[in-house]
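Q: Could you fold this chain for me?
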Amino acid sequence: MALNSNHTFEDLGGVKCSIIEKNIGADRAAFLKNLLEFNGYSVIIEKTPAKPAPKPAPAPVASVAAAATPAPVPAVPPVPETFSLGVTDYLFNPMHALYGKELKTPAGHTVNMAYWKQEEAEPKEGELYWKA
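A: Sure. Below is the predicted structure, expressed as structure tokens.
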């Protein structure tokens, strides 16, 4: 286990990995896997065990007649499939790699925070953070 929560380690598929993100969807896992493998890292993805949905508390019974008729059971939404993603390089820290400008996109641009969070399709090079 790491000294701080920003750089954690865990066994994924029997291999000790530096954890990039946990409890992510399949599309996010595929995006990060493609990006990190393009940058030369070995990526391991493992399915996160599903947590059972909490059972609803029984409603108080107001009368004997109400107790005879069963209350409708609310529909429980299915638990989404989530994954944990890690790289086999112990020294890799995603925040250091982002702010140190170590990661590149397949188009050759430097990965910024908006691209990492999938808020924009391609990073914009040469733009300043303020508007003129």
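A (continued): Residues 26-38 form the longest helix (13 residues).
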